[in-house]
C-alpha cells in the first residue's frame, strides 16, 4: 500500500507541476471560508477541496429545492428537502477526505459569522443578497481578511479581490443597495455560476500560494454570451463608512 505521504503527493501530482511542493504545503495549511454553497460557492468549494486546502468553513442556510438542481452541483436530487449544508459536506468529503470540513446551516450575520471569518485565511463571498454581502464585507474589514467578491447575474460574471486598507471594500464599490435588486428568483444558468465559482477558487489559490496576480483594485467582468470581457480600475472611497474608520 502507498504511504500517506506518497498518496498525498500522487493525488496532487498534476498541480505540483504548477504550484511546487511549497505551494501545495501552503494550500494544506490554509483555511478558506466559503459563504454560500449554491451554484457559485459550491463550485468554488469543490475545486478548493480538490486542490487540497487544509480546511473549508462553509455557511448556507435552508434545504435543497428542485429549482436548485440546475446549478448547485454539490447537491443531490435524492436529498431534496434536506439541509444543503449536510449534503455539501458529505459530497466534499467524497471528493477529498483529506480536507477538514466545517459547516453551518446559517445566514451571514455579524455575530454568527465573526468566528468563521476570524478563523479563515481568505473568504469567498458567494451569497445571493446584498445585506449578507455587506455583513461579510464588514467582518472582513474588521478582521483584516481578504475577501474574494464573486457574483453573477444572467450571463454576466464579475469578480474582484478586496484587501482591507489596500483596495476598495464592497461599500466603496456599492454605497447603496439597488432598489431594483431581486434577491430571490433572479435568472441563473448553471454554467455561468460555475464559471464564477471557478474564478473565485482560482483567486483563493493565487492568494494562498503567491502565484500570479489577484484581481486587486480592479473589477473584471465577463459576458458569457460572446465571451467579451473588460477590466476596470476601482479606487477606495476616502469617505467610506465601512473601511475608512
UniProtKB/TrEMBL annotation:
THIF-type NAD/FAD binding fold domain sequence ranges: 12-240
Keyword hit for Disulfide bond: no
Regions crossing the membrane: 31-50
CDD domains documented for this protein: ThiF_MoeB_HesA_family
Gene Ontology CC: cytoplasm
MF terms in GO: nucleotidyltransferase activity; thiosulfate-cyanide sulfurtransferase activity; ubiquitin-like modifier activating enzyme activity
Keywords in alphabetical order: Membrane, Nucleotidyltransferase, Transferase, Transmembrane, Transmembrane helix
Entry keyword Nucleus: no
Protein name per its UniProtKB record: Molybdopterin or thiamine biosynthesis adenylyltransferase
Organism: Fontibacillus panacisegetis
Lineage: Bacteria, Bacillati, Bacillota, Bacilli, Bacillales
Amino acid at each position: 500500500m502507498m504511504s500517506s505521504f506518497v498518496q498525498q503527493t500522487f493525488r496532487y501530482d498534476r498541480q505540483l507541476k504548477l504550484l511546487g511542493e511549497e505551494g501545495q504545503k501552503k494550500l494544506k495549511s490554509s483555511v478558506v471560508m466559503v459563504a454560500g454553497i449554491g451554484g457559485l460557492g459550491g463550485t468554488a468549494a469543490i475545486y478548493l477541496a480538490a486542490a487540497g486546502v487544509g480546511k473549508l468553513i462553509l455557511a448556507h442556510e435552508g434545504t435543497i429545492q428542485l429549482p436548485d438542481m440546475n446549478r448547485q452541483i454539490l447537491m443531490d436530487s435524492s436529498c431534496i428537502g434536506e439541509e444543503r449544508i449536510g449534503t455539501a459536506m458529505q459530497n466534499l468529503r467524497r471528493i477529498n477526505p483529506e480536507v477538514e470540513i466545517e459547516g453551518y446551516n446559517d445566514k451571514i450575520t455579524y455575530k454568527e459569522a465573526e468566528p468563521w471569518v476570524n478563523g479563515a485565511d481568505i473568504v469567498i463571498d458567494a451569497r445571493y443578497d446584498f445585506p449578507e454581502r455587506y455583513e461579510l464585507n464588514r467582518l472582513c474589514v474588521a478582521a483584516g481578511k481578504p475577501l474574494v467578491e464573486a457574483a453573477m447575474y444572467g450571463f454576466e460574471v464579475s469578480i474582484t479581490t478586496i484587501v482591507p486598507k489596500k483596495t476598495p471594500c464592497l461599500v466603496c464599490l456599492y454605497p447603496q443597495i439597488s432598489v431594483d435588486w431581486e434577491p430571490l428568483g433572479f435568472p441563473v444558468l448553471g454554467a455561468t455560476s460555475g464559471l464564477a465559482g471557478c474564478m473565485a477558487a482560482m483567486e483563493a489559490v493565487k492568494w494562498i500560494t503567491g502565484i500570479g496576480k489577484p484581481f486587486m483594485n480592479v473589477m473584471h467582468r465577463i459576458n458569457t454570451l460572446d465571451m467579451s470581457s473588460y477590466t476596470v480600475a476601482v479606487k477606495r472611497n476616502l469617505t467610506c463608512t465601512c473601511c475608512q474608520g
